[in-house]
Amino acid sequence: MKLTNIHHVAIIASDYEKSKKFYTEILGLPIINETYREERDSYMLDLQIGDSQIELFSFPKPPERLTNPEAAGLRHLCFFVEDIDTAVQELESKGIICEPIRVDELTNKRFTFFRDPDNLPLELHE
């Protein structure tokens, strides 16, 4: 088996409209498709990110995230940016709090973290 790319990352939102606005208007991800599944009372929003997708879901009363970034399991989602200073300024101008920019000891590349509406840790990496 040879894995060649990430097809998608799935995120379950506690407030679908708030998360939809965050990912489309604040992060600027284009919508591929939006589907309402009546039998599940659930939306699925496909968003384009490079050659991959983010699937944003809504479900009635989803449980809260039980772990923080240092617990076992998925740690965070990271986005590549060409200019981290500009990206952070843009996020902060939209009311998104970013951690101070740090330098990765192994790659010497700069990065920072911020949170989505459900407190999911997101990273920007230059």
UniProtKB/TrEMBL annotation:
Residues 5-126 form the VOC domain. GO terms for molecular function: metal ion binding. The keyword Plastid does not apply. Keywords: Metal-binding. Gene3D superfamilies: 2,3-Dihydroxybiphenyl 1,2-Dioxygenase, domain 1 (3.10.180.10). Transmembrane segments: none annotated. InterPro entries: Fosfomycin_Res_Enzymes (IPR051332), Glyas_Bleomycin-R_OHBP_Dase (IPR029068), Glyas_Fos-R_dOase_dom (IPR004360), VOC_core (IPR037523), YwkD-like_dom (IPR037478). Pfam families: Glyoxalase. This is VOC family protein.
